[in-house]
Amino acid sequence: MDFSLGPEHQMVQKMVREFAQKEVAPFIQEWDRKQQMSPEVLPRMGKLGILGICFPISLGGQGLDFISLGLACEELEAVDTTLRVVMSVHVGLCGLSLLQWGTEAQQQEFLIPLARGEKIGCGAFSESGAGSDVANLQTTAKQDGTDYLLNGEKMWISLASKADFALLTARTDSNPKRRSQGLSSFIVDLHSAGVTTGDIKGKLGVRAGSTGWISLQDVRVPKESRLGEQGEGFKITMSAFDSGRYTVAAGAAGLIRACLEASVAYAKERKTFGQPIAEHQLVQAKIARMASDYEIAKLLYLKVGWMKNQGVRNTYETSMAKQFATDASFNAASEAIAVHGSYGYSDEFVVERYLRNARGAMIYEGTNEIHSLIQAGYALGNRTDKALRREMPAYEPQRWQAEAAGIREAT
Ligand SMILES: Cc1cc2nc3c(=O)[nH]c(=O)nc-3n(C[C@H](O)[C@H](O)[C@H](O)COP(=O)(O)OP(=O)(O)OC[C@H]3O[C@@H](n4cnc5c(N)ncnc54)[C@H](O)[C@@H]3O)c2cc1C
């Protein structure tokens, strides 16, 4: 068993860390206060190749593996959650679903511009009445000649107002044998007639990011933009979560690391009762927990990254990695505030933002309660993985890296 990272992994870590430290960290507090980020950030991530990190070069990506994707997410969220969320929806939910389920024509039309960062993608499943119970969604897609007409409203969609395309799940059969069989997936051009989008204001966290709604009124979507077969939408949505949750898990490991680093620095500086608070054992206990939680979260996501590279199904392991890391990151942020005392309660220090950002990841991509149910299902033998018509392809370096990798040129 080899736990070391290869030269390409280290290169990704260094490049993304430098980008996040130099181009995000100095400005994130201002973006968070204004509840918007600079419009230059996403094009910059595209130029650096981060938005296409794990897609084959022939499909506009950087030809790197799933572990590289996880490492990039960790580095982004070690500075702020906002840009990791971009990776979760653009790469995780949308791009990787196209890689798994898309036809060659769909990959040419949609995946290449996403991987190059020329277009932005998102994943639109939730509605005001359907989050955990996603099979209850009410958005409809009715066939009309060679097109579908989509009507409904998606809610709580990350990048709703910023994305060009959405992987969107809609109901194509109102009376199926099982509710989940009545759903289909579409790649919807969000600039189409009948689409309106907007942002939700007043969120607890990820304030620099965009989370919003997508309203669809008689939106015409050609049959060629249906991803997978009609009726396959539930399976596609669940497999999109296997990709998205991985990025959430890796990012949350970065957030734990950030809490640890902030707490160590502050604990060495701040003195009470004549000594640095780092000398007090109760403060040490908090720091020790953050350090071990970081290691566990990292091992869990790297294992999932390895499984993905091998092309091994990982729904169970991804669920554990996501739930553990996001619970631990919320705990780490709360304890980091404790270490900072009153100063942790103001936005003068970063840990206040960490706590607000950490809470959301326990809700999206499956609430952590739903993850307990998923894991109990596997552990009790009530749930097993059924083979999919299209599995996520294993990482094959030769196939992925047919040409020189642009990420090296960009750094
Ligand atoms: C910041 C943010 C970004 C998001 N981004 C996206 C996105 O990009 N795309 C997208 O499609 N969605 C997105 N969402 C939506 C998110 O995925 C849903 O909010 C989430 O799945 C929970 O659904 P809900 O809000 O309807 O809660 P509900 O499903 O109503 O759940 C309410 C509570 O009941 C619990 N609960 C529900 N069912 C059970 C059960 N069977 N057993 C035990 N407990 C249960 C839940 O755990 C929760 O505590 C985002 C949400 C947030 C906050």
What is the gist of this entry?
The protein is 49% helix and 14% strand.
Would you spell out the secondary-structure blueprint of this structure?
Blueprint: H1 7-24, H2 28-34, H3 41-47, H4 66-77, H5 81-101, H6 104-115, E1 121-124, E2 140-144, E3 147-158, E4 165-171, E5 183-189, E6 195-199, E7 211-222, E8 226-227, H7 233-269, E9 271-272, E10 275-276, H8 281-310, H9 315-340, H10 351-360, H11 368-379, H12 397-400, H13 406-410
Parallel strand pairs: 1-4
Antiparallel strand pairs: 2-3, 3-7, 4-5, 5-8, 6-7, 9-10
This protein binds flavin-adenine dinucleotide.
What does this structure look like?
- Strand 9 and strand 10 (275-276) form a beta hairpin.
- The chain has 411 residues and is an alpha+beta fold.
- It has three domains: 7-119 and 395-410, Acyl-CoA dehydrogenase/oxidase, N-terminal domain (Butyryl-Coa Dehydrogenase, subunit A, domain 1); 122-234, Butyryl-CoA Dehydrogenase, subunit A, domain 2, CATH 2.40.110.10; 237-379, Butyryl-CoA Dehydrogenase, subunit A, domain 3, CATH 1.20.140.10.
- The two termini are 31 Å apart.
- It is globular, with a radius of gyration of 21 Å.
- It is built from 13 helices and ten strands.
- It has helices at residues 7-24, 28-34, 41-47, 66-77, 81-101, 104-115, 233-269, 281-310, 315-340, 351-360, 368-379, 397-400, 406-410; strands at residues 121-124, 140-144, 147-158, 165-171, 183-189, 195-199, 211-222, 226-227, 271-272, 275-276.
- Helix 5 runs antiparallel to helix 7 and helix 9 runs antiparallel to helix 10 (351-360).
- The mean pLDDT is 96.
- The strands form three sheets. Strands 1-4-5-8 form a four-stranded mixed β-sheet, covered by helices on one side. Strands 2-3-7-6 form a four-stranded antiparallel β-sheet, with helices on one face. The chain has a two-stranded antiparallel ribbon with strand order 9-10.
- Bound molecules: flavin-adenine dinucleotide.
- Flavin-adenine dinucleotide (FAD) binds next to strand 1, strand 3 and helix 11.
